[in-house]
Amino acid sequence: MSSDKVITLVAFAFYMILMILIGVFYSKKTKNNEDYFLGGRNLGGWTAALSAQASDMSGWLLMGLPGSIYLAGTGKVWIAIGLLIGTILNWYLVSSRLRKYTIVAGNSLTIPSFFQNRYRDKKGAIKIVAAIIIAVFFAVYTASAFSAGAKLFSVLFGDSIDNAYTVGLAIAAVVILIYTLLGGFKAVCTTDFIQGMLMLVAILAVPVAAYSIMTWDQGFSNALMSHANLPNNEITDVNGYMSLFHNSDGTAVAAKDIISGLAWGLGYFGMPHIIIRFMAIKNEAEVKKSRKIAIVWVILSLTAACFVGLIARGALNKALVTTDAEGNILDGSENAFIELIRQVFSGNGLLIFIGGVFLCGILAAIMSTADSQLLVTSSAISEDIYKGVIKKNADEKKALMIGRVVVVFVAVVAFLIALDPNSSVMKLVEDAWGGFGAAFGPVVLLALFWKRSNLAGAIAGMATGALTILVWSYIPFNGVTLSASTGIYSLAIGFPLALIVNVIVCLITKKPEQEIVDEFESIKSVEI
Fold this sequence. Notes:
Blueprint: H1 3-27, H2 33-38, H3 45-72, H4 78-104, H5 111-119, H6 125-157, H7 164-215, H8 220-227, H9 238-241, H10 255-263, H11 272-280, H12 284-315, E1 321-323, E2 329-331, H13 336-344, H14 349-390, H15 396-417, H16 425-449, H17 455-474, E3 476-477, E4 480-481, H18 482-486, H19 490-508, H20 514-522
Antiparallel strand pairs: 1-2, 3-4
Helix pairs in contact: 1-7, 1-14, 3-6, 3-7, 3-11, 3-12, 3-14, 4-10, 4-11, 4-12, 5-6, 6-7, 6-14, 6-15, 6-16, 6-17, 7-12, 7-13, 7-14, 7-15, 8-12, 11-14, 12-13, 13-14, 14-15, 16-17, 16-19, 17-19
């Protein structure tokens, strides 16, 4: 292994050891389920904001989004615009009211338990349905994070280590497992805070450095055209490549693509690993602080991620989309940020180490999402199914043990899903994001803001949203899925359909009991 790779490996090892030490530290402070799953509802503004956003963006921010823009240009920015709008609405509409409502509704520790307490579901049906949806879609979502980590390791060390993808996959899974199992929510949020800061520094510094090098003797358009001559790197229309409404070949961005991109913002209302942070914030003052910090972080990070894709197309000395000897297309566009760091930060030991630290920003994005997803899945099975349905009088230690076993099980399933080195990080995230957004988003909004919302409507809407995503994205009709044949993102269909079904079922079934309505009205006067 070359000295360059050894230096990078040292940076990685230092970073991973730090994450594990944080888990060890918080393991001593975790005494019960509320500590393990919500950190005692004591998160400060900065930690809550960066933890929510770091767990939100994942490896998709530094790999999937830049890769899409590298390929097609700024016509793919509509996804980022949708996510920004969704982030703002989520923090202003959901954060404070959910924090208050979960306390009033039986001090709910999880999203499924909030649904049960909100609707007085004595049989626990909605809790079971919600927990199953969480387990299924988070297995896919966690697989996307593991896959991103494996790809990072494979790109960096593939020519020095046999089976580098599988080795990287195993390392990422084991490190995330260790600190999640040990420290629970507080460990996850503290590591997410560090990782959120590292992600932001990396994604701001790298494109600025690359742009400076690329344009010092020529304009940006000229740089794009000069690198467009690389094999399989053609740009037939520079103006189109730089336009929100055109693709790199000059064709107009279709209305369905804009709608699909904006629809990503709808997913925020139903993301358990994000909105659970709202439930854990210390008080109203910290909620307001978190809101501002989170929105600024998202604006900076999404903007920078888009620039990474554009700048990589004009700065890299290699094409990321190539063909093999048999003419098959090899798409390495998701490695744009990785290759940009390797090219800019090279030459001497110090620059290589700095590049290694920035590459840890990708690890940070990956780990900050996977740990949160594992923890939420653990809480859904341990708190909502085992303690809530199977054994209601289970003691805290037994429930915690079950939760930790679930973390390991889901990690193993995600590992198996991610074993395919050709799996797309963007595709895995897309499917899981759509699943949660359609299944939980309408239920969360109606539970918080419509007093006529009832249990029957919530279950019907939740099932409709989840099944729509599965049918739209996975069930082939005449050999082709609806997603592939229409080009419309499943969430753009699943969310409104689930919302409509939820409302209709609520209106044709029995009104909520007066006790539920009174609790709903009382939220206005609750102070936290």
